[in-house]
Amino acid sequence: MKSSKSLIAIILGAGQSKRMQGIDKILHEFQNQPLILYSVKQFLSIKKIKKIVIVTNKVNFQTINDIVNKNINNKLLKNIKIIEGGLRRQDSVKNALNCLPEADQYLIHDGARPFVSKKLIENIINSLCKYDAVVPIINISDSLKKIKSGEIIENLDKDTHALAQTPQGFSGESIRNAFYNHNDKNYSDCSSMVFAAGYKIHTIQGESKNIKITTQDDLSKNTKLG
User: Fold this and answer.
1) What is the rounded CA–CA span in Å between residue 226 and residue 223?
2) Is 139 helix (H, G, I), strand (E, B) or coil?
3) What is the pLDDT of residues 180-207, one digit of tens each?
4) Domains in the chain with CATH codes
5) 119-143 burial by CB neighbour count: b if 16+ within 10 A, else e?
6) What is the pTM of this model?
7) C-alpha distances in Å from residue 15, one per residue of 25, 57, 161, 196
C-alpha cells in the first residue's frame, strides 16, 4: 500500500460503563485530568494524524465538548470533531467513518485505554505502510481454558492465542469495505469485521500498560501507571 495522504484517528467513548457501578470511566479524573484526555492528547502529538474524531454518547456529548474546549490548545481544536455514537461499538465506528469517509488510513482506539504510548501509535502507523490492517497484541502468560457452564471442557494452546488491543490501524479501503458491506453481525472489535471481509490482519507487539479500563478495580490498580 502506498504511503497515506490522510490519516484519521477515531477515539471511541460512547459506551455506558455498565460494569463501573455508577462511574463513567472516560470522565473519571486521574491527576486532575479526565481519562479521555490522555489518549486525545497523545494522538494530537503525532503530526501525521490530520483529524481526530471523538465518539461519545448523547448524555456525555456536552461534557466532552466542554472538556476538550477547556483543555486543548485553540490551534489544535480545529483538528478535533466530536460526534454521537450508535447503539453498538461498530455503529459508533460507522458514524465516525461517515464524518470523514475519504481518508487513506484510520486508527481506531478505545477511549477507555488512556495510557497508550506515542511509540505504540507510531509503530502502528509505520506498519500501515505495508499492511491493510494492523493490530497490537499481548501474549498470554497464563494457562488458557475453554469453559462451558462453569466447567473446563478444553485446554487451549496459549502460544497460538493472543489478546488484542487498540489502536487498530486500517487502510481506508479495508475499513470502508468491512463497515459498509459486512456489518450484518455483532463484532467485538474492528479487526474482527475486517477479517470477516477477507483481509489479512498483521500484528505487532502491544503494551502491558495499554490496559482497557473496564471495572472499578481497573481504576484503582492501573491509574497508577499514568
Assistant:
1) 6
2) strand
3) 998 889 999 999 999 999 999 999 999 9
4) 7-225 (3.90.550.10)
5) ebbebbbebbeebbbbbbbeeeeee
6) 0.90
7) 9, 7, 27, 24
